[in-house]
TrEMBL record:
Keywords: Membrane, Transmembrane, Transmembrane helix
Biased composition (Basic residues): 181-190
Highest taxon of the lineage: Bacteria
Spans traversing the lipid bilayer: 15-37, 49-70, 82-104, 116-139
Keyword set includes Transferase: no
Residue numbers spanned by region Disordered: 170-201, 241-281
Domain EF-hand: 200-235
Protein name in the entry: EF-hand domain-containing protein
Source organism (scientific name): Phytomonospora endophytica
InterPro entries xrefs: EF_hand_dom
GO molecular function (one): calcium ion binding
PROSITE patterns: EF_HAND_2
Pro residues compositional bias, start-end: 252-262
Amino acid sequence: MMGTDAKSATSGRGWARFGFVVGVVASVAANIAHGFIPPADAVTGWTPSYGSIAAAAFWPLALVISVEVISRVLWPEGKGWAVLRFGGVSVVALIAAVISYQHLHGLLVAYGETGIGALIGPLAVDGLMAVCSGALVALSRAQRAVVEQPAAEVQSEAGPVGDAATPVHAEAPLTSDVPGKQRRTAKPAARRTASQRDDRTDAELLAMLAEMPRNANGTVSVRDAKAALKPCGTDRARRLLSEASLLDSKPTPSPEPQPAPTTPTEIPADTEPRELAPQAA
């Protein structure tokens, strides 16, 4: 779906850029060509000045630069920025259109074109540039909207990021058969969202650890932390627990072995103790 939207957002960009370039080239060429037409009172050997040729080519190029800036720069939102953006390019486009029309009209008249053709002919070039420049601006806005839409959807699913980060899933109930020790009885169904990608920051993971239940001694085991922060690795989970002062650094003491009970030897009741006979010297 996203590929289709991206393709639709850029459809026609080639034709719009091609038409814009054709209009600019035609306008620049007509302006320069009209500058070489000698005026009525020109003397023999007259040639146009370099300044007039450069000025004739400047106006269409100014419109090209303005359209590129409008379509490529990520402008901030707000009415003031909109007025600066579209008002500025409108002024440049209007000046370029008027000067280009005068040069094209004078060039057609000099070439022998009269009547309605000399009046409306220049409008074709100005109209082509206006339509294609507007299409380039519209295409850039449509493409930017397609790129920003998935990021907004991911952010809405992941929830706020930071100290108030939303837990990825509900915690499973904890029970214990051994006093002072808690264990997880059921592994919750993990929901893979954007917050479980490998590019999560330590601040996000520490916020998730803060929501986890503690053992009796106020710590969290590395195994439980690794399962909750999946796909976080063991080393990173241990490091985060240590930073959050939740790592149990004391080993669990093993129970001391109890000695086996001894059964006393019973002496029959009818057995009398025997006296030892004295040994002869």
